[in-house]
Amino acid sequence: MTATALEGVRVLDFTQMMMGPWATQFLGGMGADVIKDERPGSGEWERGLRALGELLGGQLLFSWLDGFSKPVIGAVNGYALGGGFEIALCCDLLVASANARFGLPEGLLGLSPGGGGTQRLTRAAGPFVAADVLLAGRRLTAQDAYRLGLVAEVVEPERLLEVALDRAEQVARMAPLATRAMLGLVRTAMEAPLEEGLGQEQDALAGLHRTADAAEGIRAFLEKRAPRFTGE
User: Fold this and answer.
1) Is 73 left (phi over 0), alpha (psi -120 to 50) or beta?
2) Which of 67, 121, 168, 201 could form a disulfide with 11 if both were Cys (CB 3.0 to 4.6 A apart)?
3) Could you read off the pLDDT of 123-157 as tens digits, one per residue?
4) Which residues of the chain have pLDDT under 70?
5) Max Cα-Cα span within the chain
6) Hey, which residues are catalytic here?
């Protein structure tokens, strides 16, 4: 998928991108589905790891998702362990089914996460939760993830895709330039000092005041109608 193909996209629903033959294997994590019960050095193990490495492209997939200029919505159903959880942590908004489970069990394989799990989970949920998941192998339920603020909504499995797409439609109704600015500010807040983030917030607001979309949004509010944003 090229940058040109994504120019008109308002929201990226990552569920739709993962509906191919690797979906259950990858989103299920690096555990039983990908490497099965084979031991290191076996053909199945090596083939599984090679295929997984090609799919992830090292850190490329995670970095691409994390820095994507449009909001990324993830829908999680069942087990999101290892790489599956790390992909979820790269999303901007998550919806989970009631049977979703999250974890980073790499320590049980004598490994550590390699897709940003240690860093992104710590930033999102704090060091104590991250230590519990990483060091004690805790698996978070959907309700755990909701209480920790990792998941926006928990729904029954049969409603998962419907609710995720509804969230995407809600996001798509926002002014594109405002969405991009706010998304950038949320990401800045995760890393920058408070004063720097506040300064960037004021700069973003001043810039948006000069856009045609801002004029349209205010005019539509006064006229009590839906705005027609153009991204200008």
Assistant:
1) beta
2) 168
3) 999 999 999 999 999 999 999 999 999 999 999 99
4) 1-58
5) 68
6) 86, 106
